[in-house]
Amino acid sequence: MKKRIYLVLFMLVAMAGGYCLAQESKPVIEDFKPSTLNQPGKEYPMVNSQGYARFKIEAPQAQSVVVSLGLGGARGGTQLSKGADGTWMGTTAGPMDEGFHYYHLTIDGGVFNDPGALNFYGSTRWESGIEIPAHDQDFYALKDVPHGHVQQILFPSKSTGTSRRAFVYTPPCYSNDSKTHYPVLYLQHGWGEDETAWTNQGHANLIMDNLLAEGKIKPFIIVMTYGMTNEVRFGGMASFKIEPFQTVLIDELIPYVDAHFRTLADQPHRAMAGLSMGGMETHTITLNNPDVFSHYALLSGGTYKPEEIKDPSKVKLIFTSCGSKERPEGVLKSTEVLKAAGFNAVSYVSENTAHEFQTWRRSLKELAPLLFIDNKTK
Q1: Torsions phi, psi of 168, nearest 5?
Q2: Are residues 304 and 338 in the same domain?
Q3: Which of 114, 130, 170, 202 pairs as cysteine with 174 (C-beta 3.0–4.6 A)?
Q4: Same domain (yes/no): 77, 176
């Protein structure tokens, strides 16, 4: 019961703390350009060099149009004004954090997606998405480098009585050598998202491709699956149970991946990481299964305590991160305590970001070079 209450409070604090839209008094520079996540041929929404977002919606019969930004609209609303031509337009009150953001429209009390933008799964529904160009976006840019493959797999799950879906990233070299086996990172999404999040919103595959092309990491496989076995909505998180998902991951997905991909199928070559709720899952499952994972990573997903870890000799890395607008003091302090206890612990704080995908993109970039560095492929 305590774990469930903790999860609800954790999500409330994380979302409320991470989605506060800054209020600015600086003049808005009129250099707006279409968001890179717009539908083909659509001009709006737009973003400018300061990070402001501008929206234009065609709804001539509407009485009110509001744009709600962030997971579940947690960033607050931008009220649009109706023009003589029947379209509604408005600009955010201040610049937004760099990176990806969910949003939706509230038109006369009804919730809709923006027909001008692409959709991404978040808040337990498909939401519109907008990208605020980041100063460091080069590390997840689509470049002319060798690219790995992201493939969908459907694996049998006797415990849930169905087949379940996962996405598997294999590095560019995987297809060129049929004999080499690779370590595996099991990477979990956050609450309200699904197994598409880390590639669609997080660009995990592009981050890996670019790091590999620069020689900054050793190649490894990434597996991303849906982290829930029972459907719950916000306010009902107390009904979430991690044990059924733990069974799916440990007893069904991992054996399937090891049987169908060239993995190094042992504890030293297996890692687990997750963002937000996925961090909570990672924390619980890694502690419950010390013989399965050797590398642990929580991205805006809590911390570890030395006394929680039954066999420290089996843990090769503990990585924790968050945005500077979250609660970095806890992450930094926990790392100091873990180091003092003899653990290989690393912390990372993403500057000027909150509980959002730019924090987690940067976290994956920092985490990847630390994984499996003392391992060898075979």
Answers
A1: -125, 125
A2: yes
A3: 170
A4: no
- Whether 53 contacts 24, CB under 8 Å: no
Coil, helix or strand at residue 120: strand
313 & 168 share domain: yes
Here the CATH number for the domain that contains residue 340 is: 3.40.50.1820
Give DSSP secondary structure letters for 247-299. HIIIIIIHHHHHHHS-B--SGGGEEEEEETHHHHHHHHHHHH-TTT-SEEEEE
CA 340, CA 350: separation in Å to the nearest integer?
24
DSSP character for 12? Answer: H
Got the DSSP string for 318-360?
A: EEEEEETTS-HHHHHHHHHHHHHTT--EEEEEETT--SSHHHH
Q: Across the strands, what pairs with 65?
A: 107
How far is residue 101's CA from residue 120's CA, in Å, rounded to a whole number?
Answer: 10
My answer on whether 211 and 286 are in the same domain is yes
Residues 149, 129: one domain? no
- Pairing mode, if any, of strands 345-350 and 317-323? parallel
Looking at the fold, whether 197 and 292 belong to one and the same domain comes out as yes
Burial of 133 (0-12, 13-18, 19+ CB in 10 A): middle
How many other CB atoms are there within 10 angstroms of residue 183's CB atom? Answer: 23
Amino acid in position 169 = Y
Q: Which domain holds residue 104?
A: 2-133
DSSP secondary structure, 161-205, as one string: TEEEEEEEEE-GGGGT-SS--B-EEEEE--TT--TTHHHHTT-HH
For the chain, which ranges sit under pLDDT 70?
1-25, 71-76, 230-239, 375-378
pLDDT value for 237: 61
Q: Are residues 121 and 152 in the same domain?
A: no
Question: Is 376 domain-assigned?
Answer: no
